Amino acid sequence: MWGDSYMISLIQLHFSYLFSWKIIYISLITLLICLISFVLLSNFYVDKNVLEFYSDYYSEDYIFSSLALVKIVVLLQSMFIVINGFVINRYDIYLVIRINRNYVILSKIITIICGIIIFTLFLYLLMNIVGLFLTPFYEYERNYFDMLLDLIIFSVLYTLLYIFIIIIVKNMYSLLMLFI
Predict the structure, then answer these.
(1) Does an H or E element contain 104, and which?
(2) How far apart (Å, rounded) are the C-alpha atoms in residues 61 and 63?
(3) Which three-class secondary structure state does DSSP give residue 32?
(4) Nearest to 67 by CA among 167, 174, 149, 2
(5) Residues 128-169 pLDDT 10s
(6) Crossing angle for the helix pair 55-86 and 101-134, nearest 10 degrees?
(7) If pLDDT is split at 50, 70 and 90, which confidence band does 1 have?
(8) Measuring CA to CA, which of 71, 93, 101, 110 is 20 to 30 A from 5?
């Protein structure tokens, strides 16, 4: 009954609703805060000779600290978007009346996952750009691409976990239990 064109239309509709200007502004502010954090984590203010002498230490410190920051921010952003996407409103009621509930939920899940992957890619790019331009010790290595794949898998799994919890418990505050 429903074809691919309906699913694509639903995904486009969810993108326009879930990633409104309000959400985009909040995401941009989050990215700006992360950029400032990456700059501070790069230790650009430390003497260049010290950075070069202890390059292994500062390189590992930058990578591990930046990855921890990316994971925390991705978790919070994912939670924010899932809560925003699964709070019942008139928009959802109108869709569920006209379209099968399973199509609405599936298209919403696809939209949220695509948005989180894009956000994770932006954070990863910011981390690497700051590392390349502000530190004398940072060199992009092949295993950093594996870290990107790990981050994407991490973000998708936690997003799916958040979606599962919010659908089962049917309360937006249920996601806060994960942090307690």
Answers:
(1) helix 101-134
(2) 6
(3) helix
(4) 149
(5) 898 888 877 777 777 778 889 999 999 999 999 888 888 888
(6) 160
(7) very low
(8) 93
Q: Tokens at residue 20, please?
A: 């409104």
pTM of the model: 0.84
Q: Cβ-count burial of 16 within 10 angstroms (0-12 exposed, 13-18 middle, 19+ buried)?
A: exposed
Structure token pair of residue 89: 């409103």
Q: Tens of pLDDT along 51-73?
A: 677 776 777 878 889 999 999 99
Task: Report how far residue 107's alpha carbon sits from residue 102's, in angstroms, rounded to the nearest whole number.
Answer: 8
Give the type of residue at 130: V
> What amino acid occupies position 146?
D
Q: How many residues does the chain have?
A: 180
